[in-house]
Each structure stands twice: as structure tokens, then as C-alpha cells.
Specification:
It is built from 5 helices and 2 strands, in the order ααααββα. A two-stranded antiparallel sheet has the order 1-2. The model has no long low-confidence stretch (mean pLDDT 91). It has one domain: Glutaredoxin (3-Layer(aba) Sandwich), CATH 3.40.30. By secondary structure, it is mainly alpha-helical. Strand 1 and strand 2 form a beta hairpin. The two termini are 18 Å apart.
């Protein structure tokens, strides 16, 4: 947020822990990230990831798990136009600003 503010950008914030994204929204986020691999946005170090035995889950099962358990989704994901980045570390958002 600070990095965006430094560049004069006031983002719209979606608190997806409060309002879970749909499966279709997750698929669209992956498309904007340039991937179809749900693990790109999955917090694999979370205990719930192991509890749900997602290590060997198919991409389809991963999408279901992410939609049902938004706490497993890495954050923040920053969207700009037809691109997105997982802003970990926060400086990754600069990739979007450069375009």
C-alpha cells in the first residue's frame, strides 16, 4: 500500500478473507498472472494446506480448496489492467507500474 501511495496510486482493496472469491474469479486472477497453476497463489506453508492434504491435489482440486478456504490464497495480489502480480515481496508491484 505504501509503495502504491508513493506512486500516487490509490488502489481498490478487496478483502477476500471477508468475501471469498469465486472459483471463476480465482481462475481469472491466475490468467492475469500468466499461469494456470493454482499453487502460484497458494500459501503452501499454512497448516491447513497440509491438513487438507493438498500436496498431491490436482489443479482442479486446488481451485476448489482455494475458493472454499481463501486463507490459503497468497496476498496481496495486485491487479492493473490486464496484468497482475503476487506482491511478495512488495517491490514486485513495481513490475506493474513499469508497464
Amino acid at each position: 500500500m505504501e509503495l502504491l501511495a508513493e506512486h500516487g496510486i490509490t488502489p481498490a482493496v478487496v478483502r477476500y478473507l471477508e468475501e471469498s472469491p469465486s472459483r471463476a474469479e480465482i481462475v481469472e486472477a491466475l490468467r492475469l498472472l500468466g499461469t494456470d497453476d493454482p499453487r502460484v497463489i497458494t500459501r503452501t506453508n499454512e497448516p491447513l494446506y497440509r491438513e487438507l492434504n493438498l500436496e498431491a491435489a490436482s489443479p482442479d482440486d486446488m481451485l476448489t480448496a482455494l475458493a472454499e478456504n481463501p486463507g490459503l490464497i497468497e496476498r496481496p495480489i495486485v491487479f492493473a489492467g490486464d496484468k497482475a502480480v503476487v506482491a511478495r515481496p512488495p517491490e514486485r508491484v513495481l513490475d506493474l507500474l513499469a508497464e
